[in-house]
Write a structure and sequence with these properties.
Layout: E1 4-5, H1 55-66, E2 75-77, H2 78-99, H3 104-117, H4 119-125, H5 131-139, H6 143-153, E3 162-168, E4 176-182, H7 191-194, H8 199-215, H9 221-238, H10 242-245, E5 253-256, H11 257-263, H12 269-275, E6 283-286, H13 292-301, H14 304-319, H15 325-340, H16 348-359, H17 361-372, H18 375-397, H19 404-415, E7 418-422, H20 440-456, E8 478-480, E9 485-489, H21 504-521, H22 542-560, E10 563-565, E11 568-569, H23 576-596, H24 610-622, E12 624-626, H25 628-637, H26 643-646, H27 655-661
Helix pairs in contact: 1-24, 2-3, 2-16, 2-17, 3-16, 5-14, 6-12, 6-14, 8-9, 8-15, 9-14, 16-17, 18-19, 18-21, 18-23, 21-23, 21-24
Length: about 675
């Protein structure tokens, strides 16, 4: 729950971070990308831009000019290239299972893929697969009935004013608990309902709701859509912001069910929990506590007819990608074109493999690892992680502003870090899941319910420290505070992050800084609140805590001054944890690179020193071009600073970057030594 990842992979899938390829042309999706003769794309630079004017443009400007964003994408770059590579490999694996399944899981993979690809059957069925859901909504004429549907909708198509998830208890990581958080919005985040720049989106969403309800024959669709939009706006007005939701202390509020009912009356909590499969739960962790009574009041004050229309709209919207073309096209026109700025949809087989990956990720991951992750890659990664942990320990030991008492606790936490690389030690199967290749929507619902049941079953047993929060084929990495662990899936261990043929400086600037990023998450503004056992507790002296907060606050203020788009700035509080991790990751990786030289002077390659190549390696990981719409979405919904800015923003606080590239006071990105933030 609330683990910190290298990039967000949910509503925006592969576009959160994207960066460049080795030349002006993207490599074929099935080919592993390589970058230049020693790991960096020299031809992609724009030497007319000084490094201190814009390091991203300096290191990648020619690439940007020569590489348009394809019409079926919202971004281009190295992250996207690896996503495409992973998807191409997954597609080959899925097609192989469709031709000759190797196991029961293979049969499920094949059936789900064939169900999605059978467009003729899907078109003939039109909205028939949805009719049972709509009938249940029409017959839910009481608030208890609506609450029951909200509970059942979790994990499948449909809406709920609240969402629940099982994860390790922050105060007792050895046991699992049920977290309950705010929900209920059809747009990506509260800002879409409240902020002036999103006014055109609100207008388009209101029209979309009308179209959705009309498509299923909902009575008086126009009026119902108006009521649904007004309802969601009321909910948005009481939602916590993303910056507030990051706070590990404020979002940890254990309460008995009696206490929840007294605190947030007006919502049928026990009925909702029963619908969600959690009827036996005696206690939950309330997350956005201040929002709960307000959302519950909105539920109690909203006419049942409006709640029904809202549930119908939510269900139809979420089911649309699995229905006939009239639903698919309408959904993509709003959610793809308007919200994300994506002119064309992906090819259908790509969408099919994304669905298989989402619903059957572990069985597919097992096939992926067997084919694409040799043991040698894991061994090399283990060595790199060990080097970075040594470098981080040295930084903590030398930290001038930290007292011995806090330092002792920090070093203990670092010594207890767990490391997971490549793939899980124990694979999950899908025994009991029935996938019907003649019923796509029914199979999606069945898989959603199966996966939710798997999650809920954890409530009856201790937390599994060997479980993974990502599949091996995801191009990402994360830190899990309750396990105090850093995790690196197999798919990220490729160029531009790591290339065994590349210059070590580039690898340290790439995967080394990624490792350092995840290590630093254990000591960012939220990660620092848990100890070496993963327990949420204050292990800092008051003076050290104040000093840390002051330094972190300066970094937040620094990022809040960055304009990502004209009139649209980064939210430094919302992105603080990731920005601390970026800065720490670069510093720790640079230390590790220097240690790896054992006192030797690295060679000069193409006129570039080792440290210049290190910083180029960092910039190459983050170089990217994103459409404006997706950038605006990320500024609202993501805890990461948009990728192009990450290529240079943390470097302004790194003295060695100034020395390596002769960054001068007249350069745009120059900060005086006194203004450079120094945390870890």
């Amino acid at each position: 729950m609330q683990f910190a990842s290298l990039k967000l992979r949910a509503a925006v899938f592969a576009v959160t971070l994207a960066c460049g390829a080795a030349t002006a042309e993207e490599p074929a999706p099935s080919a592993t990308p390589h970058y230049g003769a020693w790991g960096f794309d020299l031809a992609g630079r724009d030497l007319s831009v000084r490094p201190g004017q814009n390091f991203d443009r300096h290191s990648s400007g020619t690439y940007y000019r020569n590489t348009p964003i394809p019409p079926d994408k919202v971004a281009i770059g190295g992250f996207m290239t690896l996503e495409e590579l992973s998807e191409a490999r997954m597609l080959a694996l899925v097609k192989a299972q469709a031709a000759a399944p190797e196991s029961e899981d293979g049969k499920r993979i094949a059936a789900l893929y064939r169900a999605f690809m059978d467009e003729a059957r899907i078109e003939a069925l039109d909205d028939k697969p949805l009719q049972d859901d709509l009938a249940a909504i029409r017959t839910a004429t009481s608030r208890d009935g609506i609450a029951m549907l909200m509970g059942r909708a979790q994990g499948v198509a449909g809406g709920s004013f609240f969402a629940s998830e099982v994860s390790g208890d922050r105060r007792d990581p050895a046991r699992n608990t049920l977290y309950v958080g705010q929900a209920g919005l059809g747009l990506p985040d509260r800002d879409y309902y409240l902020a002036a720049p999103f006014a055109p989106v609100r207008e388009a969403y209101a029209a979309y709701l009308k179209e959705v309800l009309a498509a299923i024959g909902w009575p008086d669709a126009a009026k119902a859509a108006e009521d649904v939009f007004a309802l969601e706006k009321r909910i948005a007005e009481v939602h916590w912001s993303l910056a507030q939701r990051r706070d590990a202390n404020e979002t940890y509020n254990p309460m008995t069910l009696d206490a929840v009912e007294a605190f947030a009356p007006g919502f049928p909590w026990r009925v909702w929990l029963e619908g969600g499969g959690c009827a036996s739960v005696a206690q939950v962790v309330v997350m956005e506590k201040g929002a709960f009574p307000r959302i519950a009041r909105i539920f109690s004050e909203t006419p049942v007819a409006t709640l029904q229309a809202w549930q119908a709209a939510q269900t139809t919207d979420q089911a649309s990608p699995f229905l006939s073309k009239r639903f698919v096209d309408r959904n993509f026109a709003f959610r793809g074109k308007l919200l994300r700025g994506q002119p064309q949809s992906l090819p259908r087989e790509r969408l099919a493999v994304e669905l298989v990956d989402r619903l059957l990720g572990d069985p597919l991951g097992r096939l992926y690892v067997a084919r694409h992750f040799p043991p040698s890659s894991k061994a090399k990664m283990e060595k790199l992680v060990a080097d970075l942990l040594v470098a981080m320990r040295a930084r903590i030991e030398k930290l001038a502003w930290m007292s011995p008492a806090t330092r002792e606790q920090a070093l203990d936490k670092l010594a207890r870090f767990r490391v997971k690389i490549g793939y899980p030690s124990r694979w999950r199967n899908s025994d009991g899941l029935v996938v019907d290749e003649t019923n796509l929507y029914g199979s999606v619902v069945a898989a959603g319910r199966f996966n939710r049941a798997f999650m809920l079953a954890k409530l009856d047993r201790p937390a599994d420290r060997d479980e993974w929060g990502m599949t091996p084929q995801q191009v990402n990495a994360y830190y899990n505070p309750t396990n105090n662990e850093i995790v690196f899936p197999a798919a990220i261990l490729q160029p531009p992050f790591f290339d065994p043929e590349a210059d070590p400086a580039v690898n340290y600037g790439g995967i080394g800084a990624v490792i350092g990023h995840e290590i630093t998450h254990g000591f960012d503004d939220q990660g620092r609140k848990t100890d070496g056992q993963g327990v949420l507790r204050d292990w800092w002296t008051p003076d050290d805590a104040r000093e840390f907060d002051a330094r972190a606050g300066a970094l937040a203020d620094q990022y809040s001054r960055i304009e990502a788009l004209p009139g649209a700035k980064v939210n430094g509080r919302q992105t603080l944890g990731e920005n601390i991790a970026d800065l720490g990751g670069v510093l720790v990786a640079l230390d590790a690179y220097r240690l790896s030289l054992n006192g030797a002077t690295p060679p000069v390659l193409d006129g570039l020193t080792g440290e210049q190549r290190f910083f180029y390696g960092w910039a190459q990981v983050w170089r990217s071009a994103l459409r404006e719409e997706i950038t605006r979405q990320l500024l609202a919904v993501d805890v990461h600073t948009p990728a192009p800015l990450r290529a240079w923003a943390p470097l302004r606080n790194v003295d060695a970057w100034y020395d390596a590239f002769d960054i001068r006071p007249e350069d745009n990105d120059y900060l005086s030594p006194d203004d450079r933030v120094r945390i870890w």
